[in-house]
Amino acid sequence: MNRLFLLLLLVVSSVARASTETPLILSELDNAIRHKKVYVAQKEEKIENIKRLLTADISLLQEYHLNENLSKEYQKFKLDSAIHYTNRNMEIARKLQSEALSYAARIQLATLYSSSGKYRESEYLLRHIDRQALPTELLAAYYDAWYLFFRHYASNVQTSGYDSQIYQYGDSLLGQLKPGTSKYIITKAEKDISLKNYQMAEESLLELLHTTEADTPDYAMITYLLGYIHRHNDEIEAAVKYFALSARADLINSLKDNASMQILSSIFYDRGDINRAYKYVQSAIEDAVYCNVQFRTIQSSEFYTIINTAYLGKEAKQKSQLQLYLALISVLSFFLIFAVVYVYRQMKKVSHIRAELHETNEKLRELNVEMSDANKQLNEKNELLSEANLIKEEYIAHFFDLCSAYISKLENYRKSLNKKANDRQMDELFRMLKSTKLVENELEELYRNFDTIFINLYPTFVEEFNALLIDEERVTPKQGELLNTELRIFALIRLDITDSVKIAAFLRYSLSTIYNYRTKARNKAAVSRDEFEKMVMRIGSYPSGHH
To answer: 0.85 exceeded by the pTM?
Structure first.
């Protein structure tokens, strides 16, 4: 009687403390969610330590036991990996011809299949196990596999038609477990809950909870069942506390088959706390997908859709409110700015007039500077115009001289051809017509005239052009030449004939040849390649000594 009273007292006190403890526990749960990757890394490190033992020189039996440990570590972490190592044990058992090891591997594989949603495969394995031939030490695992199979299958198809099988295999499991052990008490509590014996289940679980180390897998299962009982009794605050403790223990142990987090999400959704509901269901579905627990993934996905819709609706509402607040703040800010400007203008009226006078003086000073710059630019333009006029005068004079000379030459050439024709010297006439010597001579004469006139206008052109090139690439005309082809191209550019097509036509070269000369010169430049031709065009800008 005293024991019952103490248990009731513990129940009442735990419910009373729940309302004050819950915020702190939820804060610890949120912190665990943030550090989920750390716990996963710790779990993976533990698994890697076991895997390293597989690389040593070990027997098949030793490998079997290591694979068994790996499968257990992966069971609620990565189901696919757990199935892989259990399948390997099936092969080892066949090689060792051990029925006991084969039965143990098949029972473990059936449990993994039912968790991953492979119900047909799981049932096939279990139905092809001869229970009568099973070693006594495997009976508990065998009944536990059937028990979990029907619980998972019933949860997936969402029907109560399998309750009798769940009860049957639960009783068979209890018959194989040692009374007083954690597994026995938890399984017995699950049976009591299914029979609605909530008080009896709670008493046994609370007693076990006080002897179980916190944040262990057993602790997670015990607190989950206590949360389930309190939720059924509409003691929501206490239910939240226990589910949060269970979810936190699952996270710390990297147990991805996490029902507590999903139920917590449902509770907070019913409370209207959409932010927490969304955070918890997102964590739950991440874990279920990571582990590949199919029935848990389906449950979480269905609920995630509902919460996600509500979450997005809440965000949209908050956004609308924020926009309204921003509009109001903008209006108030406008009136405030208007008031500040008005007061400022009244207080600074005299100061403003002084500032305007100062600004006017500054503008006058700037205008004077601009006028000075304009005058300077005008003088430069005048000098350029003067230079251009001088060039024009020089070229006009030379142009008339050349034209007169060419007319005389053409007239003499015409007379010569006419004489040949009159004298019936047809062979000589055709020879003269076919010959290009006259054109070549005239071109040479044209280029000599051009060179002479250009150097007369820009006597320092060659020296200034070479100053723009690196020392070893300077251009020197041959003996008797004023300009060579390269210098003649840039002489035309100095005269503002920059079109390569025109230059090519004047010098009787191909367009690509002109491009190559210009590119080669830029590559030899001692100055910026982009500024090279602009600097060429400024050579001799103020010539001294025109004739």
So the answer is: no
